[in-house]
Amino acid sequence: MITKAQSKRYSGQPPLETKPRLTALEKGLLRWTMAEHGDKVLDACVGNGMMLEYLQRNMECEVCGVSDDMRSVRISRTRLRNADIVYASLEDIPWRENTFDSVYIKAISAPLSETSLREISRVLKPGGQLLVGFRTIPAPFRQMASLLHPELDDELHRPKTRGHILATLKMLGFMQITWQQTDLFHSVGIAWKPIELSDAIV
Question: Residue 113 has what pLDDT?
């Protein structure tokens, strides 16, 4: 006798438990988003497109995505056929200034450069919301990693990125900058682009 799960597997459809889901970091970003119906939003590290699919389906946003990984672009385009998903660097985003109501960044592998943040600020509308998601390591785990691997660069063990991002956002003129811990291993930085910011970054 073949169960329902087995019949799905045999028919070429993935069983329910293997379907992609929102990551904990994406859930944290969505928890703090202020996106509304009809907003134009950008996922600046699009990944597999799950977060954009959620924003499109549940909030009826106009969604766009950027990635410097062609595989992620292909996967996202397959999932979101009517969205604008492009292969590009964060330091050269191919949209005009003041285009997006919200921008989301999943800063996982590499720290964001000042150039990237300036470019993200350029495409964000005055009054728009920027959300930066990070994977964080609690202090006890960082200390243990330092003991086990003292030869590794200390930047792998301490969250310098948080201070760097906050300082850079302040320098660029962002307002109401806050930092929210979403769970033990993830946090989200939230900032708003003021109306007069476009003059400050010229």
Answer: 83
